[in-house]
Amino acid sequence: MEEKELREEIIDRIRLIYKNRENDEFVPGKSNINYAGRVYDEKEIISLVDSSLDFWLTAGRYTDKFEQDFAKFLGIKYCLLTNSGSSANLLAISALTSPKLGEKRLKAGDEVITTACGFPTTLNPIIQNQLTPVFVDVELGTYNVQPEMIEDALSSKTRAIFIPHTLGNPVNINKITEIVNENDLWFVEDNCDALGSRYENKLTGTFGHISTFSFYPAHHITMGEGGAVITNNPNLKEIIASFRDWGRDCWCETGCDNSCGKRFNWQMGELPYGYDHKYVYSHIGYNLKVTDMQAAIGVQQLQKLPSFTAARKNNFKKIYGALKEYESYLKLPEWENNADPSWFGFPIMVNDEAPFTRDDIVSHLERNKIATRMLFGGNLIKQPAYQNITYRIADNLKNTDSVMNNLFWMGVYPGITEQKMNYMIKVFKEFLNNV
Predict the structure, then answer these.
(1) Overall domain count for the chain
(2) E strand residue ranges, 298-378
(3) Domain that residue 379 falls in
(4) Among the options 219, 277, 283, 364, which is catalytic?
(5) 160 shares its domain with 226
(6) What's this model's pTM, rounded to 2 decimal places?
(7) How many Cα neighbours within 13 Å face the side chain of 62?
(8) Domain for residue 27, yes or no?
């Protein structure tokens, strides 16, 4: 048989395997309801196996296709895949330290405005690049940085703003971009939790000089592990690629040579004239590339994103409607008038006046097999990892501490079916009606 026929036979077998797999029956009170997870069908498996049959173990044709499709979806020029959203954040901040940016480069001791209320990999690249994080408190309800406090946080050392859209809820981008433009700052969007969210009908992740995405299984689409860095700036694109690919100066694609046409005609650093450009390094970089098998999954997942986004919004709407009558106990999520979130999760803060604590309701939900999560690291500067870092706080982090002590969130991902959602609401109401 020809290889094409053999591949078609394998694909037919994969379809049969997927069809014959038994779907786990949901049993209320016994089956776990996860806060997030992968949602897929036979198409992702076929794509993954097709890639594996090529045995092209690094970035290849599927990587090219995903980067092109993702850039087109977002309406931006450049997408660079990497091995995780955390790596995407590291690449974004590291790129801004490049000597190729001249006077605009970030240097040790420069300040970056960010949040202490979130996931550590927004903060870590700032510290890892010897920059100083300046923490701004969050709003209760949106759990995003307070935009009016950003201006108060500015100093002569401020060079960038790097903040996430918390749980998929867009920040006040109009105010932030106004501050960025007036003060000639870099703006990096951590869009890892917000793929599909919109602000003034424009997708988040398209406002920053650089933006980052995560494709971990818990996120809006998945590659298993994987992430992306996007930009419209061709200089930043080359710098990001350099940091991702060992710090090399060469921009040849994998498997290609001499794209510049003068591979042996460069003079760089103190190297001898004509030293092979493929082994010239302009940055102290990493190896953070993605594999083609990861990208193969992502190609199929991206096609499902519109339906995933609709499911997240629908699940969010159901929970919000069901809990609206309990606002004397619970603070429900809020969002900007011009924001249209694709929610990563449903945040709930227990009011101080409530006759129960967060631990009480979380314990009830977990006992009933409903997964919950805290808002990541809470107040990050109280985590053991950050006890000895250098930082500055703009005013105070009172609301961040309230989030750490009183907030939890639950899932809205597409794997939560109507049957599961009805059970979740039932369990919630049983607790709230009996306190």
Answers:
(1) 2
(2) 330-331, 339-340, 345-350, 372-373
(3) 305-432
(4) 219
(5) yes
(6) 0.95
(7) 28
(8) no
Nearest Cα residue to 404 out of 389, 432, 382: 382
- Both 315 and 240 in a single domain? no
DSSP secondary structure string, 226-248?
-EEEEES-HHHHHHHHHHHBTTB
Q: Cα 206–207–209 angle (5° rounding)?
A: 95
Task: Please answer whether residues 73 and 221 qualify as being in contact, where contact means their C-beta atoms are separated by less than 8 angstroms.
Answer: no
pLDDT in tens, 80-104: 999 999 999 999 999 999 999 999 9
5 in any annotated domain = no
Catalytic (active site) residue 219: yes
Tokens of 307: 């339906």
Edge-to-edge strands of the sheet including 132-135? 78-82, 227-231, 210-214, 186-190, 158-164, 111-114, 132-135, 392-393
First to last CA, the chain: 69
Question: Is 80 in contact with 227 (CB distance < 8 Å)?
Answer: no
Rounded-to-integer distance, Cα 224 and Cα 26, Å: 24
In a domain, 350, yes or no: yes
Alpha-carbon distance of 298 to 63, in angstroms, equals: 9
For the segment 353-395, what is each residue's pLDDT rounded down to a tens digit?
A: 999 999 999 999 999 999 999 999 999 999 999 999 999 999 9
Cα separation of 185 and 160, whole Å?
5
Last residue of a domain, one of 262, 293, 324: 293
